């Protein structure tokens, strides 16, 4: 088959990895004509203007880089718009311009976990499996018909970073297998919208664990605590908990889903001042939770034992 001309829409590091897989695979019958990503953003304490990872890869391969407002003329001459974690709804007037439409690699088993955080939520909620969906896009968020899906188990040790890597590889393989179907087959499966659930953007507040809860977990106690992000999800979808997790598992699942950002943190009082203590690394060993490293607000990352010797809070 002839090589398909595509415009690629994506932003974060795992989307950049996907783009580079396309560019390195000479057997893949596609040609990337242009890349669309989010604008450069200030990063870090010094607020240095930083390009998104997808832009860095695109420039490495000397591809034109645009935002959606300037890509219209390219879309008139391409076969497919391919989207993987772009981070914004694409207007209908752009969706309609690609010859064979827009296709989305979504890292969940749609219609479950629509929205911006489909990799984090299965970890936070303790799911045993997840997957990737290849779908034909319409103007609504993660709403279009399903071309193909692939499931994968979630391993007990996997964090969000691990799943980003795994699901990107699965998504790429799925896309590669389905390329002929994107053009010649239109017998796609509409989603069952009555089963749809939705995620939201992660925030720093999602990682807050009350000090008393963290203390109880370290002491091996079991409290009926549920993170706000989980409670909001079940309330939004009028769902009942079918699996109850121990406090240790609840905290560790939250850690896995929020790692590395926004991460877990708690509030501690030091010299009469309330400060933020970030929990960098934890593990579960012999049914006990161990904090490995922490970072106190305004300080460098240290071993938890060193921190506790200095402040004696736990």
From TrEMBL:
For this protein, the record's InterPro entries field holds: Fmt, Formyl_transf_N, Formyl_transf_N_sf, Formyl_transferase-like_C_sf, GART_AS, Met-tRNA-FMT_N
Q: Give binding positions for (6S)-5,6,7,8-tetrahydrofolate.
A: 108-111
Q: What class of enzyme is it?
A: transferase
Q: TM spans, by residue?
A: none
Identify the keywords attached in UniProt to this record, alphabetized: Protein biosynthesis, Transferase
The protein's Enzyme Commission number: 2.1.2.9
Can you state which reaction this protein catalyses? L-methionyl-tRNA(fMet) + (6R)-10-formyltetrahydrofolate = N-formyl-L-methionyl-tRNA(fMet) + (6S)-5,6,7,8-tetrahydrofolate + H(+)
Its GO CC terms are: cytosol
Gene Ontology MF term list: methionyl-tRNA formyltransferase activity
Under the heading Pfam families, the entry gives: Formyl_trans_N
Limits of the Formyl transferase N-terminal domain: 5-175
Per the record, the similarity remark reads: Belongs to the Fmt family.
Q: What does this protein do?
A: Attaches a formyl group to the free amino group of methionyl-tRNA(fMet). The formyl group appears to play a dual role in the initiator identity of N-formylmethionyl-tRNA by promoting its recognition by IF2 and preventing the misappropriation of this tRNA by the elongation apparatus.
The record ties this protein, via HAMAP family, to: Formyl_trans
What is the name listed in the Swiss-Prot or TrEMBL entry for this protein?
Answer: Methionyl-tRNA formyltransferase
